[in-house]
Design a protein that fits this description.
- The structure is a single chain.
- The protein is of the alpha/beta class.
- The chain contains seven helices and eight strands, in the order βαββαβαβαβαβαβα.
- The chain has an eight-stranded parallel beta barrel with strand order 1-2-3-4-5-6-7-8.
- It starts with a strand and ends with a helix.
């Protein structure tokens, strides 16, 4: 099972996640988000020995200029959460970066949207429509989502429900608010991260 933790702070959280073998470390570039990071903090990421961890930039309808100036030389993946078309995703990938495309799922017809990106994006991430709020995809739709190495799941995942998601066959999970301090959006709780990764390792064995 592969884990991505999103909404990280470059100064506070990166070393902890690397030490715990978190597969993907996500950094948000979205000004309306409490997890948005300052562009000046990007350079800090070069100070870490990432080992087997990967850096992911999480963006909403980014411009070519933004990608060239801030993303290409600093991140392994760009995660697209906006209204990017398949053509736009293709353009971004040609710039030389791996792409994760988020598909927001509220009802069954939304699931089929992934087919527009399946042959272009490196990963497809199914997420709720809540955008920055801890809300899961409706339970009756979870069994209808495609599963496999190319597909991931986000939305209100935490220590209490990871076993359930694992049993449903999801092997790539993306978390954010479920690992934060109580009533402090954007502040990760390192003890929660450790307990969560301990559970992941337990489920692998």
């Amino acid at each position: 099972m592969k884990i991505k933790i999103c909404g990280l702070n470059p100064a506070r959280d990166v070393q902890t996640c690397i030490d715990l073998n978190v597969f993907m470390l996500g950094f948000v570039f979205y000004k309306q988000s409490p997890r948005n990071i300052d562009l000046k903090e990007i350079n800090m990421l070069k100070n870490y020995n990432r080992k087997s961890s990967h850096y992911v930039s999480v963006c909403v309808n980014p411009t070519n200029e933004f990608i060239k100036e801030n993303i290409l030389d600093n991140f392994d993946y760009i995660q697209l959460h906006g209204s990017e078309t398949s053509e736009r995703v293709k353009e971004i990938k040609k710039m030389g970066i791996k792409v994760i495309k988020a598909i927001k799922v509220k009802e069954q017809k939304d699931i089929a949207l992934y087919e527009n990106y399946e042959d272009i994006a490196d990963l497809i991430l199914f997420d709720s429509t809540s955008m920055e709020k801890s809300q899961s995809i409706p339970k009756d739709l979870l069994s209808k989502l495609p599963k496999g190495d190319k597909f991931g799941l986000a939305g209100a995942i935490n220590l209490e429900n990871i076993q359930e998601y694992s049993q449903l066959g999801f092997n790539f999970l993306d978390l954010s608010s479920g690992l934060e301090r109580e009533n402090l959006k954007g502040y990760k709780d390192h003890l929660k991260i450790k307990k969560f990764m301990d559970k992941v390792n337990e489920l692998k064995n």
